[in-house]
């Protein structure tokens, strides 16, 4: 059985101090990924630093052009927010279809992004909307955040504080989920705004990524037919017992067209 020290700081400054004073610490947000990993013996942290008592990390703020979500805000809160439903309904829909009810009531947006699971839903929304990830040290553009399998631009001890989503003109998210885990085999988030068109994919590669060929086609003609012939190479896509790289490549096109039609 794992043994570890437990801390519940009330500020990001105290959380950072606790992190620096431990030999092998881990921050805990929703705990939906970390705690099962510990139970399986795949992680053995010296300290768990729980972020739930930091009030500044929770909540949703909106304006006509932006939705800002605190890092410790749960998926259920985002899904049920009238403001998010009004300004970015695709984001509310995405949050409302993550995992199951237990996961949605415990999991947080900050925890999801920091973990960067290759099949997590939120990374596609962050990339697909061109969001900005705010930390206790800096601002990180979505395009610079996801680096690889469970790897992000976060430095050791850096804490996500909030995520700023620009309000798009149109957006939609489509996914084909695993019926057991509810993780997407592939998920595609599409948005159109004054800044351009973005197409972001999750579940298919080592981390979320954009499909430039589809974005270019949709800039000229924002319709499902415009990307019908755009093929995503299967090279470097995930292969597992659920799907081949070739199947995932085909799914990207199918789901992207559905997302454009829905948007």
* Quaternary structure classification: single chain
Number of helices, where a helix is a run of at least 4 consecutive DSSP H or I residues: 11
Low-confidence stretches: none
Q: In angstroms, what is the radius of gyration?
A: 18 Å
CATH fold-level assignment of one domain: Enolase-like, domain 1
- The general outline is globular
> What is the mean pLDDT?
96
- The residue fraction in helices comes out at 25-40%
For the sheet with most strands, the description reads:
5 strands, antiparallel
| Strand proportion | 15-25%
The fourth-level CATH homologous superfamily of one domain is CO dehydrogenase flavoprotein, C-terminal domain
Distance between the termini: 49 Å
Strand arrangement in the largest pleated sheet: 4-5-10-6-7
Question: CATH class of one domain, please?
Answer: Alpha Beta
Describe the 3D structure.
This protein has 263 residues and is α+β, with helices and mostly antiparallel strands. Among the domains are: 1-55, 2-Layer Sandwich (Uridine Diphospho-n-acetylenolpyruvylglucosamine Reductase, domain 2); 170-262, Enolase-like, domain 1 (2-Layer Sandwich). It has 11 helices and 14 strands. The strands form 4 sheets. A 5-stranded antiparallel β-sheet has the order 4-5-10-6-7. It has a 4-stranded antiparallel β-sheet with strand order 11-12-13-14, with helices on both faces. The chain has a 3-stranded parallel β-sheet with strand order 1-3-2, with helices on one face. Strand 4 and strand 5 (66-70) form a beta hairpin. The chain is globular and about 55 Å long.
